[in-house]
Every structure is written in structure tokens, then in C-alpha cells.
Amino acid sequence: VNNPIPSNLKSEAKKAAKILREFTEITSRNGPDKIIPAHVIAKAKGLAILSVIKAGFLVTARGGSGIVLARLPDGRWSAPSAIGIAGLGGGFELGIEVSDLVIILNYDRAVEAFAKGGNLTLGGNLTVAVGPLGRNLEGNVSLRSSAAVFTYCKSRGLFAGISLEGSCLIERKETNRKFYCRDIRAYDILFGDITRPAQAEDLYEILDSFTEKYESEGQRVNARRAAREQKKASAKLPPKPSSRPQQSPAQAQLSSGSQSKCFCCNSNTSNQPIEVTALYSFEGQQPGDLNFQAGDRITVISKTDSHFDWWEGKLRGQTGIFPANYVTMN
């Protein structure tokens, strides 16, 4: 557990990087089902990362420090702004506890609330919920939650939600002024008026890795989904006619010099060309096959009376044979 005592912004950024790594890396303590999913951070509008100490007898007090960042319109993360947390509680409690917190800001209004400065009470204007855990990109139904804020808490190596009702988040203006060497509001920091500092590069490397991980996971999921759809589509294809001619009519005519060896028994002799529309895609497997995609309009050169046969057609300047049960008459 990290030091909750307020310090300069450089130290706070370093502490935030360490906390975020502990919440997102698989270790002997934290299995795959006990980490913050990459897509939660990749889709977040903002993040607040803090260390908090709670102590008391009957009446408890809570205090700590950390930073807040916001997602900029171009997808990058803003410079950090220093924040503190304070609160009071009651109940039959005795002792002291130090916790690390990661607060996910899911909506722009949550970021704006942090950026306004002054005191912000979580659980009042902003709905707070325990954030989802695990690496499952598709099956995590918790992402449908309408909570403006997700919270994660680690105390003594365990992840759990923490009640933040009655806790005030405070902008540490003096800490920001010393780090950026001028008076500046949290709003200006979080909305891109300050370039992100090199002192927090470790934190940005971790944050950027979540976007890359989320995109790669998304690509794998899309590839699996496309493979399943393709498999389903191919499973529905009708069987090709078994009596496949050994060569196309055009090839037979070239080799024999006459039309007597044409495999088709019913050539189209009318002036009006016959057109068919492909119901399925067909990729030829032998020379002389006519390739087409579903929806293509094929001009029939010669055909039989059966749809369970091979016909000859022309498409985009190419001539070849195709299974007649893959098309329908126009």
C-alpha cells in the first residue's frame, strides 16, 4: 500500500503509475479475474488515482492524495492535476487502514465535475458503483451500468468497492502551481491547455498500453466473430452438383473444333440473353470455373433443364461453368 501523505505532483504521478500497475497486472495475489479490465480504462473519460488513510474510534476520518487525468478529444491523456480527499464517518469502528483507490470517470459530466475545482462530494451528484473485474471483453455485463463513476479499492491485497459518500475531493491548487510554475486551474489542466509533462511518462506508458491491449483484444474478437459467421455461411451452402464436367464448353470447343461436345443439352438460341442472380458466393476450384459473389448477375451462355447441373455463364468478361443451384433465374 502506498503513502497517502500529500506530496509534490511528480511524486504523485509516480505513485499513481505504481498503483495502476498493481491494479492491472496479474500476480500471485491477483488472478485474471481480479484485475481491472483493459477496456474499462481504454474507454474511460477520466481517471483519479489516490492513496487514502482511514482511522478513528466511533467517529472515523478519511484523508489522502493523488491525481486526476482526463481523456482529450484526440484520444490522448491530459496532464495530471493534484487532488486530495477528506471525509468523516461514524459507526462502531476502531483502528487504522490505508487503501489505494482507482476511480474511473465514465462520462464527460464526471470529468467536468472534477475540473470545476472546489469540493466535490461523490455519491451526491455523481452515481458511484463498484467497477467490473476480469479480462473478458465481450461478456462483462457490468459495463452496461449507468454509473458515472466506477471505484476500485485495494486494502491488504484485496479488491473491493469502497463507500465514498460523504468524501470530498479537493483541488490542490498550490501543488499544481509549484509544479507548473504558474497559477492554473484544474479545468485548464484537464482540458488540454498544458502539455503532458515528461515527469509522468511512466504513467502515460501504462495508460497507452491499455488502449493498445483493448484494440488488439477487439481485433481478435472480431476475427473470431467473422470466422464463426463465415463458417455458418459456408455450412448453409447447397451441395455442388456431382456430375461435374471435366472441362468447360468453351474449352471443349477449342479442343474439338465443333460444338457437338458441349456438355449442355439446352443452349440458349434466342436473341434475348438469359440472366441469373447469384444466391451464394462461389469460388472456383478448377480451371474453367466462374467465380462470383452473392448478388452478382450472370449472363447464361448455355444451360440444361436441371438446376442440379453445371451451366456456363459470363461475368465481368470472364467465361466459365458454375453450379446452377447457386443461382436463381431473373
From TrEMBL:
Q: Which CDD domains match?
A: SH3_SH3YL1_like, SYLF_SH3YL1_like
Gene Ontology molecular function, alphabetical: phosphatidylinositol binding
Positions of the SH3 domain: 271-330
Please verify whether the record's keywords include Transcription: no
Give start-end positions of Low complexity composition bias: 243-252
Please provide one cellular component term from the Gene Ontology annotations of this protein: ruffle membrane
**Positions of the region Disordered?**
218-252
Q: Which GO terms describe its biological process?
A: regulation of ruffle assembly
For this protein, the record's InterPro entries field holds: SH3-like_dom_sf, SH3_domain, SH3_domain_YSC84-like, SH3YL1_SH3, SYLF_SH3YL1-like, Ysc84_actin-binding
> Which UniProt keywords are listed?
SH3 domain
Assembly with partners or alone: Interacts with SH3D19.
Give the family from UniProt. Belongs to the SH3YL1 family.
What is this protein called in UniProt? SH3 domain-containing YSC84-like protein 1
